[in-house]
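Following up on my earlier message about pyridoxine-5'-phosphate. Here are the inputs again, as you asked, copied directly from the submission form:
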Amino acid sequence: MKLGVNIDHVATLRQARRAKAPDPIKAARICEEAGCDSIVCHLREDRRHINEGDLRLLRKTVKSKLNLEMACAEEIVKIALEVLPDQATLVPERREEITTEGGLDVLNNRKRVAEVVERLQDAGMIVSLFIDPQESQIRSASEIKVKCIELHTGKFANASSAEEVKKELRQLKTGAQLGLKLGLEVFAGHGLDYDNVKDILQINKIQELNIGHSIISRSIFVGLDKAVSEMIHIIKTFRPCSIKAQ
Ligand code: PXP
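Thanks, got it. Here's what our run produced:
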């Protein structure tokens, strides 16, 4: 299981003062030196954290894999085609949201999503669709010939009762199995932390986790290298045991 670290919130802190620090480029280097498999950033249309300059510098400096989260907006698609990240993750985006809320509705936006996927894949990028673990969305993703999906774990992370956690885990497991059956690579992310990630690790079909907020938050207290190393340690040493996700 691979770990991508989302560094958006390093830039969020920088933007709180419109200052130069903390530098997301330096943060990416520390995350890579701590052993993560990819660097994730989201160039939002409102540029609330990562900006175009950051993205271009990350393209030059990231040695592992650069994964750009992006909306299907034409302006962002053009930037992606110019900068050429290794991976593009298509996400829904609304200006008023605090963070990405829910997965991309591939089912009802098939034409536009398919067109963007084709252009990005033709340019050599690995393309992933960030979707809810619903059968209709997973089948739609497969039909438009994308190679990877990232299952949205936000509902699971925000579940308020043990029953709800169990239900969301079941949904994620079924979704991961279906994705694999359809020949897709399956990733997961959103709202994962040092505790709830262990439930997701029970689903051994998932190949990559993308985690941001919990790692950057922890880095304030223990340092970024340690915050990343601790997450990698959990991922690498975890042994599935319980029946929670069955
Ligand atoms: N994956 C995707 C597609 C996302 O949009 C985000 C949030 O930017 C993440 C993973 C990481 O979520 P979090 O910051 O809650 O770990």
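One observation from looking it over: The longest strand covers residues 126-131. Hope that helps, and feel free to reply on this thread.
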